[in-house]
Amino acid sequence: MDYLDLIDQLDALDDPASVWKAGVRYFRHFGIDGVYFLDLSSIERPKALWSHPSIERHSHSVGLTRRPDPLQQCFKTLRPCPTGADFAKDHPELSEGERALIEAFGEESGLKTGSSITVKRHPLGRGCGFNILSSLGREGFLKTFERHRTDLVMGAQLIASGLKPEEVRQPDDASRLTSRECDCLAFVASGLRIAEIAQRLGVSVVTIEFHLRNARQKLGAQTRDHAVALALMRGAINP
């Protein structure tokens, strides 16, 4: 398979969700085990898509602490940048915290090698693109990437052209949240305690806990903070 085959596939697809699934399958053909798409064009409301649960947890960790995603550094150039734990030491611009985060992700997921593919460059990193990750070793991944560089880079551009991240819903998407559930999540994001939210809305603490529990279930979140991070990432609430 090459990017010309991908063109034929994408021409037959009408919706972004199908484009995303086709894109993940395309990358998998080249030994890519994890795909992460990040759009920082609107820095206040970044959009992210992922194909691996460990990538979601990584995104949650970054979003919850409001730290810049390390991938943002790669969006300053159109040149692909090596990513993953096996290449972390090659990036002196990374802070110790960012390097530790990348290494922890690699240990958890087994995806220690990868490369960025920038689709839209921005001098401050507010662009968009992919992080393609693999369980191949450092040398194996470099050989694979160089062998299929054109197909990977062109494929990323084609996939991105068919993606509207805000329209591609992850499982248990935020569109099912009620307005009151969004209000409760927004108040939690602002730092209010449950009792303070209840007082603000004029309802009982039990009612607030009920709304937050429903929101967590709809978003597929493990914790209340996780639900807030997912709601922020998917644009259900504003930062």
Automatic annotation (TrEMBL):
One of its GO terms (molecular function) is DNA binding. The keyword Lipid biosynthesis does not apply. Pfam families: GerE. Coiled coil: none annotated. SUPFAM superfamilies: C-terminal effector domain of the bipartite response regulators. GO terms for biological process: regulation of DNA-templated transcription. Gene3D superfamilies: Winged helix-like DNA-binding domain superfamily/Winged helix DNA-binding domain. The keyword Thylakoid does not apply. Keywords: DNA-binding, Transcription, Transcription regulation. It comes from the Bacteria. Residues 170-235 form the HTH luxR-type domain. This is DNA-binding transcriptional regulator, CsgD family.
